[in-house]
Design goal:
- The chain has 430 residues and is mainly α.
- It has helices at 2-19, 29-36, 42-60, 66-82, 85-101, 107-119, 123-136, 140-154, 157-164, 173-185, 189-206, 209-225, 229-242, 247-260, 264-275, 282-293, 297-311, 321-332, 335-348, 352-364, 368-379, 386-398, 402-413, 416-419, 421-428.
- Among the domains are: 168-244, Alpha Horseshoe (Serine Threonine Protein Phosphatase 5, Tetratricopeptide repeat); 246-314; 317-430, Serine Threonine Protein Phosphatase 5, Tetratricopeptide repeat, CATH 1.25.40.
- It contains 25 helices and no strands.
- Helix 16 (282-293) packs antiparallel against helix 17 (297-311).
- The longest helix has 19 residues, at 42-60.
Length: 430
């Protein structure tokens, strides 16, 4: 009888172990190696030629202000291709001059400058320009689409939803990508994916490479959030097939290799190849995180220092404020600087994520009740971002609310891939 029981127990555990989801291999170096060792950044070369062409024409006919818009477009492309912030600032200067020459009354130039400010995280400045463009009335729907974007970034959710309802059209690519973004904001990931998939279909039918490339990476991100990692990987590869220099897609693959496959060495190899042609300060933070996972304290510290040196450039403005605040809190223990950034972010864009910086700063200095007040007044039920939910779980736990912490823990474990192995270890300790 005992032997029969032990045999039954053994079979049960074998079946149980076979049902577990092991770390399935998703990526294959043969798929993406060809994109890592590219000698020339063709996107950068093309944009430089475009800029030189229009700059020469402007030099010959300085009164032709439309050339400034063309130069700004080339500079924006150069920023996208290289990550060099100076190109984004140069594009801003081109557009400010173009707007000045048109008396700040050309809706198209106002929208284009607003788009530049959005890239710089200058959302209030962008809003002011778009409100002028709305008053102007030219191509009003284009302006209202951007007003949705800005109000969503500023945490003005009622206004954002109102603008979204003003250009509804299920066959409109611009509407679908915004409806997808709104669905994600509301925590409805399935709907976000559904609408982005519809947008991808439209992009594919348009056969515009840049539109398809952008759509593929955005859909890949959503698939990653939903733990559909094979689909995510395949769409990053689709983007790279169209744009071999697509740094964002390569970073996405590096994250799959690191977070899912737990292969930090290969993830670093991909990132190091990306950095040779495209520079963005957040690459250093990702390398620092991977180093922490590898228990390589020296490499982690070196990458954090490289990050701090990179963002020590006034041209970045507020673009990395959230990252900076977290570095001040988690690594440097410079809480006064973290509070200053949190308060600035709340003033500029009072979103749940901005309030999360404040709540986490209070938590880090042991002001648990103040942290909880911020959570319950400004964050709870207003965002579904996993990192913010982790902070809320820790804050509830510190205030003796183990029930709430455990509730968040269950949800956060489903987001382990999105948060990464280092954060997953913290979540399991909740």
């Amino acid at each position: 009888m005992q032997n029969s029981y032990l045999f039954t127990l053994l079979i049960f555990f074998l079946i149980l172990s076979s049902c577990e989801d092991p770390k399935q291999q998703i990526t294959n170096t043969e798929d993406y190696n060809k994109y890592l060792d590219i000698k020339e950044n063709t996107s950068e070369t093309a944009a430089k030629k475009e800029y030189a062409f229009w700059n020469e024409k402007l030099q010959k006919t300085p009164n032709q202000f439309p050339y400034l818009g063309k130069m700004a477009s080339a500079n924006s492309q150069l920023f996208g291709a290289t990550g060099n912030i100076q190109y984004l600032i140069d594009a801003e200067n081109n557009l400010v001059e173009a707007n000045n020459k048109t008396g700040n009354n050309n809706a198209s130039y106002l929208r284009t400058l607003a788009r530049n400010y959005i890239s710089q995280h200058r959302f209030k400045d962008a809003l002011a320009l778009l409100e002028k463009a709305e008053t102007n009335g030219e191509r009003l729907e284009s302006t209202r689409k951007m007003l949705f974007d800005v109000h969503l970034e500023l945490g003005n959710y009622v206004q954002a939803k109102s603008y979204l309802s003003q250009f509804k059209g299920m066959a409109d690519f611009d509407y679908l990508i915004r409806l997808s973004k709104w669905s994600d904001h509301e925590g409805n990931l399935d709907a976000a994916i559904k609408y982005m998939e519809k947008a991808v279909t439209i992009a594919e039918s348009s056969n515009i490479s840049s539109l398809k490339q952008w759509s593929y990476t955005n859909l890949a991100d959503f698939y990653g959030h939903a733990n559909r990692l094979q689909d995510s990987y395949e769409h990053y590869l689709k983007a790279l097939a169209l744009g071999p220099n697509d740094a964002y897609a390569k970073k996405g693959i590096a994250w799959i290799v690191y977070s899912h496959e737990r292969n930090p060495e290969e993830a670093l190899r991909i990132l190091n190849a990306v950095i040779k042609q495209h520079m963005s300060p957040d690459y250093y933070l990702l390398r620092a995180e991977i180093a922490e996972f590898m228990n390589d304290k020296l490499n982690k510290e070196n990458n954090i220092q490289q990050y701090l040196l990179s963002v020590d450039n006034r041209d970045y403005g507020a673009m990395y404020n959230s990252h900076n605040a977290m570095i001040f809190m988690e690594e440097l223990k410079s809480y006064e600087e973290a509070f200053t950034i949190a308060e600035h972010e709340i003033k500029e864009r009072p979103t749940p994520q901005s309030y999360d910086l404040l709540a986490w700063a209070y938590y880090k200095i042991g002001e648990y009740k103040k942290a909880l007040e911020v959570v319950e007044n400004n964050i709870m039920d207003k965002t579904f971002e996993p990192e913010t939910q982790y902070h809320m779980a820790e804050i509830y736990k510190a205030n003796g609310r183990e029930d709430m912490a455990l509730k968040f823990k269950e949800e956060l474990l489903e987001s382990a891939y999105e948060l990464g192995p280092v954060m997953e270890q913290k979540i399991r300790q909740l």
